[in-house]
Design a protein that fits this description.
The structure holds two protein chains of two kinds. By secondary structure, chain A is mainly alpha-helical. Chain A has 14 helices and four strands. In chain A, strand 2 and strand 3 form a beta hairpin. The longest helix of chain B has 36 residues. The two termini of chain B are 27 Å apart. Classes of the chains: A mainly alpha, B mainly alpha.
């Protein structure tokens, strides 16, 4: 039953993988510089790593916006956000998972009568504006640097393309890592207060309760990438501005840096040490940041080829996503509470000074199920990767032999 | 990862080798025409054989380049254009070979008064194509410089046209002692030579568009 509650989060993770992975590898795959299979494998692994290793920072901020104190509430919120993302993606409308989940949390706050922490909300909404702006600035600067290097080095076009291809893979992996680190909060953040599992001891290291949730969320994102992102990736290339391969690499790098900045507590601490204000750990929308980055390059090129109609649609999407998701969450909570009689959360201030969170805690059998589930998925993933490697090696060998035979016959 | 593979290095070598073949082919064409007009047929045949070898090698390289670019997904966004450019460059050396072959088969008698004009026509036509060679190389290394290099191609092409027209006029209007069959034979020979510069112009047009696409 408890695992069933998590399915909405996994659905949201799947939607995020299907939708947002295209921001990272879309241009590379759309322009056929990187094959989809390669992109999907790299993105999946990097997303999982980012989620598990660095996912905590942004989740804390989301927790402050609304501490969902019942698993039924978390389920409904994640479902409302996931449905919003899915429906908007289905109608080819640009959508941000971050905005969907923030809208849903506000919907929960309104339904349960909890106050929305305006400071945190302001912080999050501010990044919806600053994220794309910083992305645009970074992409312009990086683009100037890349073009200068290209011009001055007189490097052969093929050699340059090889570097760009390799760069796209490395930058894409970094982007997927940052996406996992920053956006896992959207997928699993609402479940964090309700779950408390035993740490998973793997000998060399142990995985905490939140990391186990993030791992599961990361796996859901990976499944989304593998199963559904191809369609989005094939169509993303050159929607707002037609991008050259180096432009695509710059856009992904700038976006990855922005996502990384907003999820790296180490960098934030460093800022504080040198007397600068700390960087807020906020889940930023990768879709919004990439739009900013692409516009940056468009502006640098003279803004002639920017598709302003599409930009208008994107802006409408940015406004409508949190509103739609919030409304959907509000009404869904009403139905879940009144028709199914499931506890969806309550007003924190009315219960007492400290939030009383109904956690699915310390249930040893639950922890065991989780442990074997995660280990099973990871082990089958490793086996599948190994089999894929063997299959690819065999295919390449056969291809090479047939090539050699062909040219031998030609001679 | 792509950066660790030798495909790119091999491809760059093959393209350079291919363009070298075109360049050499044009050089040999000049020499062959000179030898023919000086009635040194042994030398002409030797040059013809050399062009034949170069053309075969260019064909082989063209196939290998196309094959490598497709199988290793090299330069996917511009691959089609690069393959077409290689094809048009190959047409130039094909045209060189077929022109010399036609001359070898027909062995037209050239009036002495036309020798100088025909030689300079062959030189100018070869010049057109030769000026294309650095532009084609520049496309791969410095696309910003392609357009300035192509100016010379257009200049030599228009000179070739003017020369060909003037020679044809003098054949048909002034050389009344030649019969129509010989006049026609000479006209075809001139057209063959002129064709080399026309193909160079076709490649230049293509290259100019390709360079712009790479720059923006």
């Amino acid at each position: 039953m408890i695992l069933l509650f998590l399915t909405s989060g996994l659905f949201l993770g799947w939607s995020l993988g299907a939708n947002d992975a295209s921001n990272v590898f879309g241009s590379a795959v759309g322009s056929k510089m990187v094959s989809f299979r390669k992109a999907a494998i790299i993105a999946s692994l990097a997303v999982i790593l980012g989620a598990v290793l660095q996912g905590a920072g942004a989740s804390d901020t989301l927790g402050k916006l609304g501490s969902i104190n019942a698993i039924g509430g978390a389920f409904t919120l994640a479902l409302a956000a996931a449905v919003t993302v899915y429906v908007m993606t289905k109608f080819s409308l640009p959508v941000s998972t971050t905005q969907a989940i923030v809208g849903a949390i506000i919907g929960w706050n309104l339904f349960t009568g909890n106050n929305t922490d305006t400071d945190t909300l302001t912080k999050i909404v501010a990044t919806w504006i600053t994220g794309p702006v910083i992305g645009a600035i970074f992409s312009i600067l990086l683009f100037i640097i890349v073009i200068k290097i290209k011009k001055s080095s007189r490097i052969h076009l093929f050699r340059f393309e090889t570097y760009i291809k390799t760069g796209l893979i490395i930058v894409g992996a970094f982007g997927a890592y940052s996406l996992g680190a920053n956006n896992i909060a959207n997928v699993m953040g609402v479940f964090l207060p309700s779950f408390n599992l035993d740490p998973l001891d793997l000998g060399l290291f142990s995985i905490s309760s939140s990391q186990q949730l993030f791992l599961l969320g990361g796996l859901a994102i990976a499944v989304g990438i593998i199963t559904y992102s191809k369609k989005v990736m094939d169509t993303i290339g050159g929607n707002i501005v037609e991008l050259s391969p180096e432009g695509a690499m710059v856009v992904v790098l700038a976006q990855s840096v922005v996502l990384f900045i907003f999820s790296s507590s180490g960098l934030s601490n460093l800022f504080q040490k040198i007397g600068l204000p700390p960087i807020p750990m906020v889940p930023v929308s990768s879709s919004q940041v990439i739009v900013g980055c692409v516009i940056g390059i468009g502006l640098y090129k003279g803004a002639r080829n920017i598709n302003f109609k599409l930009l208008g649609e994107i802006a409408i999407g940015w406004l409508s996503t949190p509103v739609l998701s919030g409304l959907l969450a509000f009404f869904s909570l009403f139905f879940v509470k009144n028709i199914f009689g499931i506890d969806v959360g309550h007003n924190i201030s009315s219960v007492g000074s400290l939030p009383e969170i109904v956690t699915v805690t310390t249930n040893t059998s639950m922890s065991l199920i989780f442990k074997y589930l995660l280990l099973g998925i990871v082990a089958s993933g490793i086996v599948a990767a190994f089999l894929y490697y063997l299959f690819e090696r065999k295919k390449n060998r056969e291809f090479r032999l047939s090539e050699e035979k062909f040219w031998k016959n030609m001679k | 990862m792509a950066v660790f593979k030798r495909t790119t290095k091999n491809l760059i070598i093959r393209i350079d080798e291919f363009i070298d073949n075109i360049d050499l082919g044009l050089l040999v064409f000049r020499e062959a025409m000179k030898a023919y007009l000086e009635k040194d047929f042994d030398s002409f045949e030797r040059h013809l054989k050399k062009v034949d070898t170069l053309e075969n090698s260019a064909d082989r390289l063209q196939r290998e380049i196309e094959n490598d670019m497709i199988t290793h997904s090299v330069l996917p966004q511009h691959r089609e254009e690069v393959v077409k450019l290689i094809d048009v460059l190959d047409e130039i050396i094909d045209s060189v070979k077929s022109s010399l072959n036609e001359i070898d088969i027909e062995r037209p008698e050239i009036p002495v008064s036309l020798n100088k004009n025909l030689l300079s026509l062959a030189e100018t036509s070869a010049n057109t194509a030769e000026e294309l060679v650095p532009a084609a190389r520049a496309y791969f290394r410095a696309p910003y410089t392609v357009r300035e290099k192509l100016l010379r191609v257009y200049y030599f092409e228009s000179e070739t046209d003017k020369m060909a027209l003037s020679i044809k006029k003098s054949i048909f209007r002034e050389m009344n002692d030649l019969d129509l069959a010989r006049k026609n034979q000479l006209r075809y020979m001139i057209s063959h030579i002129e064709n080399i510069s026309d193909l160079a112009q076709k490649a230049a047009d293509m290259l100019s568009g390709m360079a712009i696409k790479i720059i923006i």
